[in-house]
Write a structure and sequence with these properties.
Blueprint (H helix, E strand, L loop, with lengths): L2 H20 L1 H11 L4 H4 L3 E5 L3 E6 L3 E6 L10 H15 L19 H12 L11 H7 L3 H34 L9 H13 L1 H22 L1
Antiparallel strand pairs: 1-2, 2-3
Helix pairs in contact: 1-2, 2-4, 7-8, 8-9
């Protein structure tokens, strides 16, 4: 192996490792934009190979996609600006934000209580009999306030469907307005964390995600200057 060939092989391997370790979100967008693969099936994208003429990306059950590099690279030094340009094209084509959300933040302070209140309400109103004498809820908590128990008994058939509809709408809104926009792969573990948080917390989850995005935007602005 000549010295030039060895250097080329080393540069190629560094590009592959770097893209797989730090820029999987870009690989996912390449598959979505250039190969029209859904976010779900692209979520495990890995760069398998790159040449001056193309890159080969695998995803899911060993599905292999070849994306031509047009025009071909003249040298490995052109790889970085090319993949950056391809990601910008993919982001614009998919109408995505330039900010990718790659982490989840747990609720803090009083927001920790909200999911338990919502879950508790759903459990309590899951059965009308929960507000009747003989139930654990009635005998231990509502026995001293029979009028309130009667009120809850009356509204139970209407309240639970309403609560479920509202919280399901919030979860769906999180997925469509935030997670898709910020390139969180659908049905990935990170996607589920944010969707479940939105279902049980509502506005608290939206505020935390928006804070992550704002912090990333501030960081990018500082780097530019």
């Amino acid at each position: 192996m000549t010295e030039a060939h060895a250097k080329g092989a080393g540069a190629k391997e560094r590009i592959i490792q770097h893209m797989n370790k730090d820029h999987q979100d870009s690989l996912i967008r390449y598959l979505e934009h250039y190969c029209h693969v859904s976010s779900y099936y692209a979520r495990n994208a890995q760069l398998e190979d790159i040449t001056f003429e193309s890159m080969t990306i695998t995803s899911g059950k060993s599905c292999r996609y070849i994306i031509p590099l047009e025009p071909p690279l003249a040298s490995w030094s052109e790889a970085r600006p090319r993949v950056v340009a391809m990601d910008s094209t993919s982001t614009d084509g998919l109408k995505r934000s330039k900010i990718t959300v790659k982490k989840y933040k747990k609720p803090k302070g009083l927001w920790i209580v909200v999911p338990f209140l919502v879950a508790g309400t759903m459990i309590a109103f899951s059965k009308r009999s929960n507000f009747e004498p003989g139930s654990v809820l009635y005998d231990y908590l509502l026995k001293s306030v029979p009028e309130f128990a009667k009120f809850c008994h009356t509204i139970q058939p209407y309240l639970l469907p309403g609560v479920l509809m509202i919280h399901t709408t919030e979860a769906a809104h999180m997925a469509s307005s935030r997670l898709d926009k910020h390139s969180v792969p659908r049905f990935s573990p990170l996607w589920w964390k944010w969707v479940i948080s939105a279902f049980f917390e509502g506005v608290g989850a939206f505020r935390r995600l928006d804070r992550i995005v704002a912090d990333e935007e501030d960081l990018k602005a500082k780097i530019k200057h």
